[in-house]
Design a protein that fits this description.
four-stranded antiparallel sheet, six-stranded antiparallel barrel, 2 helices
Length: 305
């Protein structure tokens, strides 16, 4: 026997249904979102470098026996200073010509003496090694894809012995036109040589010292930027989820360079619009969402590799 529900029971069921519906309706997906920004897109260049200075091996222009060395290792020299003389073979002559002496080609320091008094040498054979007294420079070895973004006047910094040591400021003077193998590192990959002057006073590192180099390089001077995580890749193209008045809508976009954290949007977005970064999975067109700001978003500079 079935009895009809009392009016009070029917009311209770109705209220319960309304409550459940309200709860379900209120369970909006939570997403993290950021505003589209216009700013430069930078990345952190990391590379190795070598302190260099003008240097040369000097010798005689004729065959003979060294009869006098006027300098020793560590001596500082003035341009045109007499360094050594020899006696042409087979006999010692009292008169010497320009081929029988070595003079300093520039203000320099003697860093190595290859041959001693009494040694017989041939034309062009190295007798002394000199390093110029002019300020040294740093040659930075940069991957080709990074070198294309470097320009004369860009500022970098170098450190000896790791990133916790003192940093010295460098200024890019010249970017090589081709990638070459490092002569000091057999088996290395081809890299572009970038010559940098040292802007910091009191630079203490001697030529031949290895350094770590890093610095901020602009990929794009001015662009619309979003986190790379905001872009959804698909067979039909790239898109982002745009939040407007609490609801999401898929928007096709065209993108450009990225620094692994941020990416340039060349078409499809405007500055100030809000895009979803986290929580994109399962979103539906027009769905109401609860927006949480993305932690730390968004800065125009984040480190690349």
């Amino acid at each position: 026997m079935v009895t009809a529900a009392r009016p009070a029971s029917r009311l209770a069921l109705l209220l319960f249904g309304l409550l459940v519906g309200a709860i379900v309706t209120g369970c909006r997906p939570e997403v993290s979102a950021v505003a589209v920004q216009r700013a430069p897109l930078n990345y952190t260049l990391t590379a190795s470098g070598l302190v260099e200075s003008e240097s040369s091996d000097v010798g005689f222009q004729t065959t003979g026996r060294i009869v006098q060395l006027y300098v020793k290792e560590g001596d500082r020299l003035r341009r045109s200073q007499l360094l050594a003389r020899l006696s042409p073979l087979p006999s010692i002559l009292d008169t010497l010509d320009a081929s029988d002496v070595i003079t300093a080609p520039y203000d320099a320091r003697v860093v190595m003496v290859y041959e001693r008094v009494g040694a017989v040498v041939n034309p062009g054979q190295a007798v002394l090694r000199l390093i110029s007294d002019e300020a040294p420079w740093v040659t930075v070895f940069v991957e080709s894809e990074d070198a294309v973004h470097l320009r004369r006047g860009h500022h970098l910094q170098c450190r000896a012995g790791g990133y916790l040591s003192q940093a010295w400021e460098l200024v890019v003077e010249q970017v090589g036109s081709q990638a070459v193998v490092r002569p000091d590192l057999p088996g290395s990959s081809r890299q572009v040589r970038v010559r940098c002057s040292v802007a910091s006073p009191g630079f203490p590192l001697a030529p031949g010292s290895e350094v770590d180099v890093d610095g901020e390089v602009a990929l794009v001077a001015d662009a619309l930027l979003v986190p790379t995580a905001a872009v959804v890749r698909g067979p039909s193209g790239d898109q982002v989820w745009v939040v407007t008045e609490g609801r999401v809508k898929a928007r096709p976009v065209q993108v450009g360079p990225n620094n692994f954290d941020l990416i340039v949007v060349t078409q499809g977005l405007q500055e100030g619009e809000t895009v979803v970064v986290e929580g994109k999975a399962g979103l539906r067109e027009g769905e109401s969402v609860k927006v949480q700001p993305e932690p730390g978003a968004t800065t125009a500079h984040r480190e690349g590799e």
